[in-house]
Design brief:
The protein is mostly helical. The chain is built from seven helices and five strands, in the order H-H-H-H-H-H-E-E-E-E-H-E. The chain folds into two domains: 9-137, Methane Monooxygenase Hydroxylase, Chain G, domain 1 (Up-down Bundle); 171-217, 3-Layer(aba) Sandwich (Ribosomal Protein L9, domain 1), CATH 3.40.5. The radius of gyration is 28 Å and the shape is rod-shaped. The relative contact order is 0.09. Required for correct functioning of the GINS complex, a complex that plays an essential role in the initiation of DNA replication, and progression of DNA replication forks. GINS complex seems to bind preferentially to single-stranded DNA.
Length: 223
Amino acid sequence: MTEKKQQIASAGFELVQSLHDNPDVLPPYNKKLVDKCAKQIIDLYNENVRSFMDLKSKTDGSNKENESQVFQLVRIRQVAIDQIKRCSCAYINERMKRIKNMRWKCGGQIPEKVKNNMSEHEHKWLKNYNEITFEFQNEFGKEDEENEGEEVNGGDGVNLFNYVDPPDKLMVKVRALKDSGQFETSDGITVVLAKGAVHLLPRQDCENLVRKGVLEYVNQITD
């Protein structure tokens, strides 16, 4: 039965294998294979329904051997349905996980080559995820009626991209990788990010620029 189940659920295994073979990237969304899995689930389910309806129509119980064979086939189909569903869900969830990780790693800007490998539904999911995250960030700093109108964080919200990792250094030495003009730090100090220039800046101001390729760390110095 195991061999038969694997043959039926081969499309689901192919989906999982495609991600296993490409662990560090987001391969193109395989719509053809996903649709094939969905069709297999529907077809197997309908076959089980027909089998039960046939048994129900034969109420005399004259053919116990045939009844046993039907139940065995139904069981094989159901196991295959469950396997295909698990593989399909694993494929979709792993892709969502990779998209989300790339978003945070790239400072919110997913590369175009990655976007080209995403499905229409994944683009919609990412848009909703961005909106929810943006709304959450803006909640910090809004007027809190329960605190007599006091504002949190000065009413400026919070940029979560600046706090991806727990800070272990207050100040870091960074080098500008390209000419980016003037940049004002959270301390109110303005520096000119000229290519090759080295600055000692607050860590929280640099993390997002490092992820975007504007700056690179030279070394880290405690304050």
